[in-house]
Design brief:
Elements (H helix, E strand, L loop, with lengths): L5 E3 L16 E6 L6 H12 L2 E4 H14 L7 H10 L2 E4 L7 E3 L2 E2 L7 H4 L2 H5 L2 H18 L1 E6 L2 H5 L5 E6 L2 H11 L6 H15 L13 E4 L5 H19 L1
Parallel strand pairs: 2-7, 2-8, 3-7, 8-9
Antiparallel strand pairs: 1-4, 4-5, 5-6
Helix pairs in contact: 1-10, 3-6, 8-9
């Protein structure tokens, strides 16, 4: 797929997504469902010429694989084994995000409501999470200059990132955005289940509702999309100037 750089969840070395001569800088962004992390981080990465990692997509792909393999998600050991064997590649090109499991492109499939409703069961599996965190760290390290977003990037995956931000928004704004993202196909109860209830489940594995020490809060409730992107870019540019 022309224009994309892929990195495996396994340990073999792969080419970095960004220029190997570029200054090393990690931008870590956490936040709850519907806060706008993915779209904001992709836009910021494109502007900055950085790689982009959607760690949530990795958990979604793992969930898709478990369901495809008919793994009982209540069987913690079986889920962990499936994640360990997961043949996943994920693009770090912000303009061409592709997620493949084996030879199958699951980029769209992992966004289906059935995945959203089950992903917490994989994300809260301690061994599966540990495996995916290790893969995320390898991807970030290989890229060097990257915007990584998720739920525990600022505290667990990349606590030493030069820019650490908690991107948040009110529950009303998050529900509205997720509904628009899904094209109005979900009713209010379904949206609450996918956004608010999922956040409640995932908070058992990571704290993404409160900023840890040294993590800046970016509340996008009353900001436009571009204002939110510009705010994140501004924080990165300040860090770049400080590092120069």
């Amino acid at each position: 797929m022309e224009g994309s750089t892929f990195v495996s969840t396994h340990t073999e070395q792969t080419p970095p997504a960004t220029d190997p001569g570029a200054p090393r800088m990690i931008i870590a962004v956490d936040g709850p469902s519907g806060s706008g992390k993915s779209s904001v981080c992709r836009a910021a990465a494109t502007h900055l010429g950085a790689g982009y990692l959607d760690t949530g997509a990795m958990y979604r792909a793992a969930t898709w694989y478990c369901l495809d393999q008919q793994i009982d998600l209540d069987d913690e050991e079986a889920v962990a084994v499936a994640v360990e064997e997961l043949p996943m590649n994920i693009s770090t090109d912000p303009d061409h995000q592709v997620i493949c499991v084996g030879s199958q492109d699951v980029t769209d499939a992992i966004r289906e409501p059935r995945i959203s409703e089950k992903v917490s069961e994989v994300a809260t599996n301690r061994r599966a999470r540990s495996l995916l965190v290790a893969a995320q760290r390898r991807i970030i390290d290989e890229a060097g200059f990257i915007v990584a977003e998720g739920r525990d990037i600022t505290t667990v995956v990349a606590p030493d990132a030069q820019v650490r931000v908690l991107l948040t928004a009110s529950a009303e704004a998050r529900l509205r955005r997720r509904g628009a993202q899904l094209g109005g196909t979900q009713d209010a109860e379904a949206l609450k289940k996918q956004v608010l209830e999922r956040d409640k489940k995932d908070s058992a594995a990571s704290n993404f509702t409160e900023a840890a020490d040294g993590v800046a809060v970016l509340d996008s409730s009353d900001l436009t999309f571009q204002e939110t992107v510009d705010s994140l870019i501004g924080r990165v540019q300040i860090a770049q100037e400080d590092a120069a």
